[in-house]
Amino acid sequence: MPMTQPGAEAIAADHAANTAAAKAAAGAAKAENAAAGVIHSRLANGLEIVVIPDRRAPVVTHMIWYRNGSADDPVGKSGIAHFLEHLMFKGTHAHPQGEFSNLVSELGGQENAFTSYDYTAYFQRIGKEHLGTLMEFEADRMINLVLSDEVVGPEREVVLEERRMRTENDPSAQLDEAVQAALFPHHPYGTPIIGWGHEIETLGREDALHYYRRFYTPENAVLIVAGDIDFETARDLAEKSYGRIPARDDAPSRRRPREPEPRAHRLVTLADEKVEQPTQERVFLVPSYTTAAPGEAETLEVLAHVLGGGPSSVLYDQLVVEQKVAVNAGAYYMGSALDDTRFWVYATPAPGVSLERLDDAIGAALDKFAASEIAEADLKRAKNRLVAEAVYAQDSQVSLARWYGESLATGLSVEDVAAWPERIDAVTAADLTAAARKWLQKRRAVTGFLQPEGEDQAGLAA
Amino acid sequence: MPMTQPGAEAIAADHAANTAAAKAAAGAAKAENAAAGVIHSRLANGLEIVVIPDRRAPVVTHMIWYRNGSADDPVGKSGIAHFLEHLMFKGTHAHPQGEFSNLVSELGGQENAFTSYDYTAYFQRIGKEHLGTLMEFEADRMINLVLSDEVVGPEREVVLEERRMRTENDPSAQLDEAVQAALFPHHPYGTPIIGWGHEIETLGREDALHYYRRFYTPENAVLIVAGDIDFETARDLAEKSYGRIPARDDAPSRRRPREPEPRAHRLVTLADEKVEQPTQERVFLVPSYTTAAPGEAETLEVLAHVLGGGPSSVLYDQLVVEQKVAVNAGAYYMGSALDDTRFWVYATPAPGVSLERLDDAIGAALDKFAASEIAEADLKRAKNRLVAEAVYAQDSQVSLARWYGESLATGLSVEDVAAWPERIDAVTAADLTAAARKWLQKRRAVTGFLQPEGEDQAGLAA
Lengths: 462, 462
Fold this sequence. Notes:
- The structure is a homodimer of 462-residue chains.
- By secondary structure, chain A is of the alpha+beta class.
- Chain A has 18 helices and twelve strands.
- In chain A, helix 3 crosses helix 9, helix 12 packs across helix 13 (355-370) and helix 13 (355-370) crosses helix 18.
- At the A-B interface, helix 7, helix 8, strand 8 and helix 13 of A face helix 7, helix 8, strand 8 and helix 13 of B.
């Protein structure tokens, strides 16, 4: 979807939001809150601004989203996006290491940062009177980061230790890495966000600075301010801080290959003595909100909810309640992504049930679903619940701000966010069946088996 | 292994070759022919020259090898190395399209070209009196290629049709692509040499010219001349043709990520109605002659020969002769590669034997081999046969020239080629067992199953 054009400042999303709210189902009556009064603008240097009013308490959430994530790591330098996120806390000449975090803490605020495949974001939540100060600090580190070998080296060790803790010692995380790599052999979503260990080891100060200069620019960033503040005030504060950063010639580009059409099913098996509970997952390559044809991503969202969104879902009902081959089963659509993405179906076998038997039962359940059509009333209930859950989550100021940031960082618009409940409501039973037939084909999938050492491990010790 | 240093001209490999020949086993007595009199040199502009005397007939083989293959294709531009190989026949201002090929044909010669993962090569075989003419033409197209949209567009269609013929209509080729992609999710060996169809479609004149200018330089090329010619004559002819091409500042670099250590076995299954004969393959990630520790690649070479080099091999004996679960079985080590490479074990099931059962039998056979040690006499016989086969193949002038070209294009030296029989002879029975235990672990492997539609295809139609 096209971004708002540069120069088209102060586009209010009110109209779209109100239309959506008017049409939204009863369970989604609060949807208008999600977009009411949201204003989208842009500074002269290219920085996008989204202001989301929320007057319930005198606090604000301040977020800067950069449109670069691990999938933009240069070849052979996996992990650099995440490593730089760590290094962004190493200080500037004006504000040496620790000063920013100490300030947030002393003012009673919270802060965090996260790196994903498609973006990197930094945020704080604080009393509204301190917003201008936060912006000064955040704008300062957008352009004035100071990195010495003395801070880069030890921080690389911190990241390597983080990887060891999270992945090297966790068979489940190792399987997940192998499954993603098998699903995305061509596209960089197959590389873990934290990077491959042997490449993290090579990341140095120059790599970090080169990456920083390429991506940390106002044209590449989105400022989200949610809370007890009006648009004009937020914008004036942003002008005084971020507005002083000069624009680059143009926004950095992302160059990503498209995954070829999958032709063969892939089964990834990891056996480890540390595994106590076997698990199964089947991950399908599907379009994202950004790459899908109109309505297709919303259909996949509803499909995941109907198939595996809790105890009343199709898979849970058939596998756990009826057939008793699983103790848990679910589905999840990772719709927010710049490129083609993942649709998970997963289950935990009941005691004594092999992963092969469970996987066959899941295949049969998907076949059965694709051969029938969900009752209209069931579909309506599922859609209402889905939208209601989303609206409930948005009652959190941070969650709502995050939804906008994530959407804008993956190529969607404020209007897309506002109209989401309406588009979910438009999904039909026939859409679901067609989507299951089209996208949940076994050849599009990677199946992952996590099992204790010794099971199904003919051949040398895995 | 280090390349010969620039400036160290006219290094004769005679000594190493004779030493090797002296130590080579009886079956490899002709090994000295492979390297006797081979001279390695370099022009001032960086072009390497290898001259291989072969006086049996008044003909020469002339080859130019460029150190770039499909694994050097830029991200999103897969297939450009192979596409440019096609375009190299489109002519120059001096010699318009068709003139070079017509000349070779009129002079009674043969010509060919090939693109692999690590190199692209062009060769002709012709009466020795025409060598200078060939060099003039080949040197001309190294620097003066003319490409117009009128020739690029139709040739792209030719390549797309080549892909359709070779892959899109052949389930075996599709499985092979999926298996390689699963084995190399990070490294570009996972991308087919011909490229992915959706990326070939985007290749244009500018892509081709940019690639051509980057890689088609004297520093990046190796000239191999084999046949009825002495070094000085070949070198003088090369000086007069290739020697006129100016050097670039430095040789183009190859930037390739290293595959992370595999942790989970991957099974790739392709079912298609066109499949009449099911097949099984298991491909392990192993070091190449270029990346291996000393002696390790030679051990893998012998291991492949012992395990699966014909009807007297371990796998054939156990699976085909004894257990009768297969009608064919073999192994192959693709040792010639710049980066970590593939070791195949493959079999064709006997009628009525499932691929799962066959695969289990192969796993058991590998386990058994890794738990024992081959008899010294058997090993000696295997090594002699392996070297003898290689020497026999080198009796072909083109094969011998190709061996040198391939070796030099993947980072080896003339000395490496000459000493190969000696290094094969040094492999011990203990080496084989250790290599099987270290490298033929199931977690390092991708298994491929090719089967008729309907078998083991629970879930939606693959």
